[in-house]
Amino acid sequence: MQRKVFDKLASGIGAVLVVVLLVAGGLLVWGHSFAQSNVHNQLAQQQIYFPKASEITAVEHDYATTGKTADPEFPNQAMVAHIAPYAGDQVLTGKEAQSAAARSAKPGSAAATQLAGLETTVFQGTTLRGLLLEAYGFGTIALIMLWAAIASFIGAALLLMLTLLGLRHAVRTPEEERVFSHNGATTDEPVLDNEPVSIA
Asked: What is the pTM of this model?
């Protein structure tokens, strides 16, 4: 096979892969944007807020001095560190939803008022927790899509460079140069080794 033809074939395959990676990257960016905005919009409607910084500080003080707290929103000390960075914020992202799921609805919030009527059922807090964790799951999917899109675009850029280099090489390669030939042979026929074989 002529080297020039081989270079053009390899470059053509590279060009197709560049297009595939660009399309995949574009779809992944769209998926990331859709999942992210959907999570934000759904959580915004729930009107769920984290405890204020003053509440978190009081709970931290309780755990530091007595090892427990009377605040029902913090049944264990480990929750404090997860919620503290979001003090007073509204739950709008998947990561925040994961932290908020551990404490369900904040007393006095719209969500807590709605859940008050369900106190006698096993669904109190559980449904909200499930919704929050679902939002976290979709937020994580959005993040994975973003990283996959970045990887696709990087791959496309690398393949594009290799494709251009292959085309450049094809233009500079003489017509008579061949690939897959043995010992510099210029034919496409396989070259056999004619050395005698001795049988002992």
From this structure: 0.57
For 22-48, write each residue's pLDDT tens digit: 999 999 999 988 888 888 887 788 777
Within-domain flag for 98: yes
Residue type, 86: Y
DSSP-assigned beta bridge partners for residue 2: 178
Neighbours of 135 (CB within 10 A): 26
Burial class of 149 by CB neighbour count within 10 A (0 to 12, 13 to 18, 19+): buried
CA distances from 165 to 74, 149, 153, 161, 180 (A): 61, 24, 18, 6, 20
- Whether 94 contacts 41, CB under 8 Å: no
Confidence of residue 120 (pLDDT cuts 50, 70, 90): very low
DSSP-based three-state secondary structure for 180: coil
Residues 107, 167 within the same domain: yes
- What is the DSSP track for 31-55? HHHHHHHHHHHHHHHHT-BPPPHHH
Q: Quick one: 97 and 143 in the same domain?
A: yes
* pLDDT reading at 102 higher than 60: no
In a domain, 123, yes or no: yes
